[in-house]
Design goal:
This protein is α/β, with parallel strands linked by helices. It is built from 18 helices and 31 strands. α11 links the parallel β25 and β26.
Length: about 625
């Protein structure tokens, strides 16, 4: 083969420059490398090498390498220096007078995979028999009273159970954990228990409540025809329905009146509009009754319910108990002004006079007043998962004035307890709230892994490690990457996290997509995967995986494709939903099948049985 000496010299010089930069960075960050857990020493070193590689523009180098028939560095992130020296050795053999160069303290491709698999096993448990990728499932609070639900999840393929401390309480969490452990023993399966602390989640505060009214409505198709009646739970106040599937509506009635209602009873009513209708009672369960309604209705407190044909055709009635106030909202349009308050005053919609002139703009509180110390005019702000976009006009210690720059044509509704994102704002470390500290104490005692939400920098990790040491805890840490700051500081965050063992990263794609921008997110999630691979840190692919299937029972084509992409991670997380078992079964099959065609990020070319007949058949790989 004829060698183009000029190209070989270019490759040799470029590789030499990268190696020198990597060795320089080793010296520069020697103190950080030496602070990591001994298990992570080679991984930390490789991460530094990868950051050195990525500090170069290597597009031309990759093209020259491919043209010369050499490794293009495309998938070298978990064994950087070994690959660089391998390329240099080959290049040296093509150059007269060059000597072979070897460095023995760097990680090979095979060793890097061994390290990553070991780290994954320790934090997520042993892999299932038919797939490498683990599955994490978010457990709803209702599962505390439903052992069979958790048993079925574990039997179907759940490998890790996630409990979010933002919801429920320690009594509920302990019941769920007991169910998980019991099911694990019964099925002889290992299931890691993961628990999230809330962290500094920034949300909208309360809004002035609306009237105490409940609107009952059945499901209708696009033609307005009823396709499913409304499922109604009737019970004394405070009695929750058993089971995982929640009712559409809960109507409080007195215990005395409930006893008179039998299976097959028909309850007649006249709603607040003067419209008449009926509720048909289908069955009794626990301390309540189930009913269905095929008509829309507006109920208020003290609306009368009449039992039709009650005992010898006598009329018997009861009243609906105290209803909750309806959830109000702020209607925001492009160009509107919104005031955020540091104090927890109740939010109100904008007020206009009879001529339509604005008297006072809409206002709402922010649940995280510390943000007022960091936000600056001109920075972006997003509400409700990015549905409403604004820009900060002014900031004081008490108020942030926001100009709405993007909303629906007819206005977007902003409700209480909706997320607020400040993607441009630079944060410092935040102290743990009293709730977080209490939750960490519980987690340290009962869980295998703590999921740390809204990390922004390495100091946040140091704070968590310090807090866990108070409880003499050595549980695993999963760092949730969900802010612009956490993405920007990821390498430094990993080096701090690697002071302890084991460590994982959760790619929390919901908030992260909003923070980094939708158009940027596809490449950003790939970048996070590469950086973690360089550090031999396992990744959880999270947020909206098979979400429509879990909620409605029917998947979308887009989420099936997205789920196939999730195979690149070491673990995939499912969120809760009525059809979670179906989603779990589907995810299990997709992951098993994808492993026949791709190993992490490397493409596999499996046998096509009919290829010599110019046909394609994947029948062999059906699961």
């Amino acid at each position: 083969m004829k060698v183009n000496q000029k190209k070989i010299d270019y490759i040799d010089n470029k590789i030499e420059a990268i190696i020198k930069k990597a060795e320089d960075l080793e010296k520069k960050y020697n103190r950080k490398i030496n602070k990591v857990n001994a298990i992570y020493k080679s991984s930390a070193l490789n991460l530094i090498h990868y950051m050195a590689l990525r500090s170069f523009d290597i597009e031309k180098l990759q093209e020259e390498l491919k043209d010369a028939g050499l490794a293009s560095l495309a998938h070298c992130e978990n064994h950087v220096m070994k690959t660089l020296f391998s390329v240099k050795t080959v290049v040296s053999s093509l150059k007269k007078g060059s000597k072979k160069e070897i460095r023995k303290d760097v990680t090979s491709a095979a060793k890097s995979m061994e390290i990553l698999d070991k780290n994954t096993k320790i934090i997520f448990g042993s892999p299932p028999a038919k797939r490498r990728t683990r599955i994490m499932v978010t457990i709803p609070g209702e599962a505390a009273d439903d052992y069979k639900f958790i048993y079925n999840l574990l039997k179907t393929g759940m490998n890790s159970a996630r409990i979010n401390c933002a919801h429920d309480n320690p009594d509920v969490w302990k019941k769920i954990i007991d169910h998980i452990k019991k099911a694990s023993v019964s099925l002889n399966k290992n299931c890691s228990i993961m628990m999230d602390i809330s962290g500094p989640k920034i949300r909208t505060g309360a809004i002035t409540p609306g009237p105490k009214v409940m609107r009952i409505k059945p499901q209708k198709n696009s033609l307005g025809k009823v396709i499913a009646p409304a499922r109604i739970w009737l019970a004394p106040p405070g009695v929750t329905p058993p089971g995982i599937t929640p009712p559409d509506f809960v109507i409080p009635v007195s215990e005395c009146f409930l006893k008179k209602i039998k299976r097959g009873s028909i309850l007649n009513y006249t709603d607040s509009r003067g419209k008449k209708g009926t509720i048909f009672i289908t069955n009794k369960q626990g301390d309540g009754k189930w009913g269905i309604s095929r008509k829309s209705a507006y109920f208020t407190t003290d609306t009368k319910l009449f039992i039709e044909n009650y005992e010898n055709n006598n009329s018997e009635s009861g009243t609906i108990g105290e209803l909750d106030s309806t959830e109000e909202f702020l209607l925001l349009k492009t160009g509107d002004t919104l005031i955020l308050h540091a104090d927890q005053r109740v939010g109100e919609a904008a007020i206009y006079d009879e001529t339509g002139t604005l008297v006072s703009p809409a206002h709402i509180s922010c649940t995280f007043p510390e943000i007022f110390d960091y936000a600056k005019p001109g920075e972006d702000i997003f509400f409700d998962d990015g549905k409403i976009e604004g820009v900060i006009e002014s900031v004081t210690k008490d108020e942030i004035t926001v100009k709405i720059i993007n909303a629906k044509n007819n206005g977007s509704r902003l409700r209480a307890d909706k997320g607020i994102n400040f993607p441009s704002t630079k944060f410092k470390s935040f102290n743990f709230s009293d709730k977080d500290k209490h939750d960490i104490e519980f987690i340290a005692k009962h869980a295998d892994v703590i999921n740390y939400s809204f990390v922004n920098n390495s100091q946040d990790i140091d704070n968590l490690i310090k807090e866990l040491k108070k409880h003499d805890s050595k549980i695993g840490i999963i760092v949730k990457i969900e802010t612009e700051s956490s993405f920007r500081n990821l390498p430094d965050i990993l080096l701090s996290a690697m002071k302890t063992f084991p460590v994982g990263v959760m790619l929390a794609r919901g908030d992260l997509a909003i923070e980094t921008g939708w158009k940027n997110f596809a490449t950003i999630q790939e970048e996070i995967m590469r950086i973690c691979s360089a550090a031999h840190i396992p990744v959880v692919w999270a947020t909206q995986v098979l979400e429509q299937l879990a909620k409605t029972g029917v998947p979308t084509r887009a989420e099936i494709t997205d789920t196939a992409m999730a195979h690149k991670a070491e673990c995939v997380m499912l969120n809760k939903g009525i059809y979670i078992n179906q989603a779990l079964k589907m995810l299990d099959k997709i992951l098993i099948r994808m492993e026949k065609f791709q190993h992490r990020r490397e493409t596999i070319l499996p046998l096509l049985n009919e290829a010599d007949k110019l046909e394609i058949s994947h029948e062999k790989y059906n699961v």
